[in-house]
Amino acid sequence: MSTIKQAPLPSANRTVFFVSDGTGITAETFGHSVLTQFDLKFKQIRLPFIDTVDKAHDAVRKINDAFQREGNRPIVFSTLVKAELSAVVFKSQGLHMDLIQTFVAPLEQELGIKSTHTVGRSHNIADTEEYKNRIEAINFSLAHDDGQSDKNLAKADVILVGVSRSGKTPTTLYLAMQYGIKAANYPLIPEDFERGKLPSCLPEFKGKIFGLSIAPERLSEIRNERRPGSKYASLENCRYEVNEAEAMMRREGIRWLSSTAKSIEEISTTILQEIKVDVRVY
Amino acid sequence: MSTIKQAPLPSANRTVFFVSDGTGITAETFGHSVLTQFDLKFKQIRLPFIDTVDKAHDAVRKINDAFQREGNRPIVFSTLVKAELSAVVFKSQGLHMDLIQTFVAPLEQELGIKSTHTVGRSHNIADTEEYKNRIEAINFSLAHDDGQSDKNLAKADVILVGVSRSGKTPTTLYLAMQYGIKAANYPLIPEDFERGKLPSCLPEFKGKIFGLSIAPERLSEIRNERRPGSKYASLENCRYEVNEAEAMMRREGIRWLSSTAKSIEEISTTILQEIKVDVRVY
Questions:
Q1: What are phi and psi of A183, to 5 degrees?
Q2: The pLDDT value given to residue A126
Q3: Is the predicted ipTM greater than 0.85, yes or no?
Q4: Looking at A101-105, A257-261, B172-176, which range is the least confident one?
Q5: Using CA atoms, how far apart are residues A221 and A211, in angstroms rounded to an integer?
Q6: pLDDT in the model for residue A6
């Protein structure tokens, strides 16, 4: 996606384990954030569904084996809710980063109630309203990808507009999957620029429209991967489309950002700040 | 998605803040895991992109205002990497759960090096190979959704099979978005059952095929939302299709799981354990 090459990081010769009684996704996501603070490469092993004492002992063996092999203490990020399981894993020779125990105890004191210690509860959510909303939002976003359908645009929380390949589709899917937001996306195409008007189904929804733009050079790179050497991908055409799209968004008073150097996480967070969508309050 | 109704949780009359110099997604995901250990409902406010001292002071004002309003200390999950910013936020009247400082200090000691303290680095990833892979995987999964294309199936990391509406599409998108895994999906349809054979393009890729099944009752519910009263959605037809699909997967030696009570996170984690896909080692 970019021509910037990153120098490979030196190896830490050390294994990181993500141990969880659920999917391990929280331990991994969080551990990942912490580890990127260090310019080292780690071997990573996820140990999900550690929900019995036997499996906990298995995990201990794997952690200790890595210690034997590498001569460096493995780093263990764990989200084991049951105390009997974390007690077992704690006996391993790793450096323990226990996310639950570290933060649950002070919260119990502050709130004056005991935690429910429910195993893997945050991801055992297939039966909740929130989960249902996420799946519905994914289906909505797929059905309203790339202007495929004008139907039910009134039900959209957000409508993204922008030239082809400006990052609309991955962003709408991320908004749906992460936040249960129904996000449609609508391309701005040369016919719209000639008419000098937004696609006719959009003006009535202006309050929830958000634009994505992109540097013409980057756009040309992306389009060339799909249709090498085409007029569609040429820098000249990309410049024209981006200029026209930005002029149209300014004229119509549509908020927009440049997706050029932004991840879908960053784009989505900005959109949520701008379009006040009411996201999962539980 | 389910007929199980959950009793509403009592309100904690307390606000939870997620404060970050980046998107705040890590703080929010993690905080969410911790809070679900308590049977209380919290008001939640995300404060992303807090990357200057001025913005940190703004955050402090919001936290203190909530304290004034509710009379209960707000809970503050923060992932502020820069010490000067976390020092400001720490002076607020909240209960502080500082994810970075809590775990980075012991890691610095263990690794014998200082952390880079790079702001929001884990999500400022739009220029990395890993990010590029994720976006490519999303595009691949969309192009290979629902058996749309047989092309490039050799490039797929995983091919999901199962009856229509068994959860294949959201799972492939989650695998792509979270792990950069190229996941195709292929429906098993009545014609396949009549022939008694897998779709002809699949057998050569058996090593990376994984099946999703689902309880016929649940499948009938889901299909009735789309096509109420149709034969397609009838319990009798759903029983037939699920039986045939499971028999075919057993006959062909395809690993499968039931998606009935599982979230896409749980399904994806199980698939990754079964199909040994090499996921982002950095």
A1: -120, 115
A2: 72
A3: no
A4: A101-105
A5: 20
A6: 52
- Is the Cβ of B282 closer than 8 Å to some Cβ of chain A? yes
Q: Yes or no: say if A138 and A176 are a contact pair by the CB < 8 Å rule.
A: yes
Strands (E), chain B: 11-20, 41-47, 75-79, 95-98, 158-162, 183-187, 209-213, 256-258
Residue among B44, B276, B144 at smallest CA distance from A179? B44
Quote the minimal CA–CA distance from B105 to chain A in Å.
Answer: 10
**Which residues, 6+ apart, have CB-to-CB distance to B84 below 8 Å?**
B53
* Overall average pLDDT of the B222-235 stretch: 95
Q: Output the CA–CA distances (angstroms, integers) from residue A119 to A85, A220, B77, B149, B258, in the order listed.
A: 11, 48, 21, 40, 20
Residue reference for tokens 């991801």: A123
Contacts of B258 in chain A (CB under 8 A): none
* pLDDT, position A3: 39
CA atoms lying within 13 Å on the CB side of residue B229: 0
Per-residue model confidence (pLDDT) at position A277: 65
- Kindly indicate the confidence band of residue B140, based on its pLDDT and cuts at 50, 70 and 90: very high
Residue A1 pLDDT exceeds 80: no
Q: How far is A269 from chain B (nearest CA, A)?
A: 6
Residue A16's pLDDT is what? 96
DSSP-based three-state secondary structure for A216: helix
Tell me if residue B146 falls in helix, strand or coil.
helix
Interface test with B, best of A37, A41, A124 (most B CBs within 10 A): A37
Mean pLDDT calculated for residue range A261-277 = 88
Contact call for residues A93 and A75 (beta carbons, < 8 A)? no
Residue B188 · residue B137 · CB < 8 Å = no
**Cβ distance B216 to B166 under 8 Å?**
no
Question: Does the beta carbon of B222 lie under 8 angstroms from any beta carbon of chain A?
Answer: no
B-proximal residues of A, 231-260, CB under 8 Å: none
pLDDT band at residue A29 using 50, 70 and 90 as cut-offs: confident
Q: Residue A165 to residues A118, A225, A242, B266: CA-CA distances in angstroms?
A: 43, 11, 11, 31
